[in-house]
Amino acid sequence: xxxxxxxxxECNSVxxxxxxxxxxxxxxSQCQADLDNPFPVEVTDESCKIHIDENDIAVLVDFYSTTCxxxxxxxxxxxxxxxxxxLTVRFLKxxxxxxxxxxxxxxxxxxxTIIAFKKGEEVNxxxxxxxxVELSLWAESLI
Length: 143
Ligand SMILES: [Zn+2]
Hints:
The protein is α/β, with parallel strands linked by helices. The chain has helices at residues 45-54, 69-73, 75-82, 101-105, 132-141; strands at 3-7, 14-18, 41-43, 58-64, 89-95, 113-118, 121-126. Helices cover 27% and strands 27% of the residues. Bound molecules: zinc ion. The site of zinc ion has 8 residues, from loops.
């Protein structure tokens, strides 16, 4: 039976789920949070690394700053795009002013920068404001 490792958005614990089991709520074994919750997850340097390294599903990380106009302009589009990707692509957001470790590690110098990861490896990145359609198509391409 095929299994997938999914990092809980609430408590960052790693859950192993069986992909064939349908119609069952997929809840975190530690905190009972919904693993299928598609909303963007606000992460710190520490939790960002766990999501990048431990998730079997693709991960998008939006490096933003609250003082960056294009970053804030993309806020709703990023959230809207995420809604279609519950257990297929995890959408993360990291405030690169407050949490600079991951941004440094991946050489993020312009905001917004969005980086796609699969199983801990960077797939590609884009450093500009994206529309909801662009974000959706990108996420789709990672599945
Ligand atoms: Zn949890």
